[in-house]
Structure to design on (452 residues):
DNA sequence: CATGTCAATCTTGTATGCAAGAGAGATGGC
DNA sequence: GCCATCTCTCTTGCATACAAGATTGACATG
């Protein structure tokens, strides 16, 4: 199974089992998967192409820690994509609405259980699920990659409060879709992602030092001294 | 320069020097670039992640020949992305408009020179250039990949007539942007891509046998006999 | 002449070996 | 005690060797 490694790593990232900044050792992964470094590197290369991991030369592979700027870019792209999709989409069928309803129920359960990790995953999957109704694999894949990156952003910056607010937004978006009001759904989706993005900028960081290092572009800058 | 190979191959594809279905030999590329197969495979893997090339196991790497279904997906995604961007974009600045004007002029030159290959490239680059004004690297990269795939589609299906019609559409879109009417620009862009997609379905194929094979999913289907 | 078979060759798939940069810790000088 | 330096180890970077499927052509056989 050639793509097993990539899929496994992606799942771990999306489900929050591997966090932003985590180092991924080629040797360890090779041993864990029972293959040589070659296949591990292939999988990591693919994930790098999707901006999920990055390599620091001779230092190691790391799950990306999106900067505030990158975060803004990803959210802006998602806004554009989701708005463009919903505003031009025909009203959903009953089956499609039921699918989204099931998702909302799961989100609710995760909220009640205060399962933050699962909630973070579900937050992104909601939008993937919306787009999935189009049957457009290209669109879904694009959204899935953006959602994965958003997850990394959320895990790094987002507070529980925002996660809860996001869930409420999702409910509203769902309700608009359910009553066939795609225009409102598109607007709500756009505003929702704007809110989330704005929330990121003012949130306190879980690790001030790490955030500072990233903000100052330490670690990666080759111009160590002027 | 680790990414030189990928960029070089992508350029060749985007500029139409390598056509859909073309086989890319690891050995030949390795010799051409003066490196080992390892780096070539890395570049091809990245391009595969972007749906620009594909590998048939033990047979070789090939520039993708998008099926009609894939073509529809790519165009639909571009429609969504471009509409969503333009409709939510502030009016462009004079400098931004000038940048697009320069592009339109180049398109015009290619039309006059009947330079179909260059025109195909410029057709995609127009939309990349629009999105570039956002300064959003994520958005630009997404659009660039979609544009590259669209180029492959155009090279395979699109007639000169459609290329010319597309240029006229671009002029109209540009004029709407230039006068700050983003709503009209968004609508025109959406309709334009709908027209192009519709055109693909009725166009005659440049190679009926190849098209048939693709339609019937030969070559790639593992279920050779039932 | 038609056809099935076998071998040579070409392709990618994967593992492995070696080079070289980066970092940590010991060690020596002060 | 403090600091520089050196070495040892760990990391990825890249090339290469070998495995194994796919194809093509020769060639024998009917």
């Amino acid at each position: 199974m050639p793509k097993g490694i990539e899929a496994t790593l992606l799942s771990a990232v999306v489900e929050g089992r591997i966090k932003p900044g985590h180092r991924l050792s080629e040797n360890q992964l090779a041993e864990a998967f029972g293959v040589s470094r070659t296949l591990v590197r292939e999988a990591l290369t693919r994930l790098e192409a999707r901006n999920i991991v990055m390599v620091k030369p001779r230092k190691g592979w790391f799950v990306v820690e999106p900067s505030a700027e990158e975060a803004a870019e990803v959210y802006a792209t998602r806004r554009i994509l989701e708005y463009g999709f919903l505003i031009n989409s025909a009203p959903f069928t009953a089956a499609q609405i039921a699918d989204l309803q099931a998702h909302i129920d799961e989100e609710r359960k995760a909220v009640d259980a205060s399962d933050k990790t699962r909630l973070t995953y579900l937050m992104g999957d909601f939008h993937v699920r919306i787009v999935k109704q189009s049957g457009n694999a290209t669109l879904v894949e694009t959204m899935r990659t953006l959602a994965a990156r958003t997850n990394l952003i959320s895990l790094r910056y987002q507070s529980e409060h925002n996660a809860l607010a996001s869930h409420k937004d999702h409910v509203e978006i769902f309700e608009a879709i359910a009553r066939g009001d795609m225009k409102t759904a598109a607007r709500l989706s756009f505003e929702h992602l704007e809110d989330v993005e704005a929330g990121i900028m003012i949130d306190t960081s879980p690790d001030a030092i790490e955030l500072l290092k990233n903000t100052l572009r330490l670690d990666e800058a080759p111009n160590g001294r002027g």
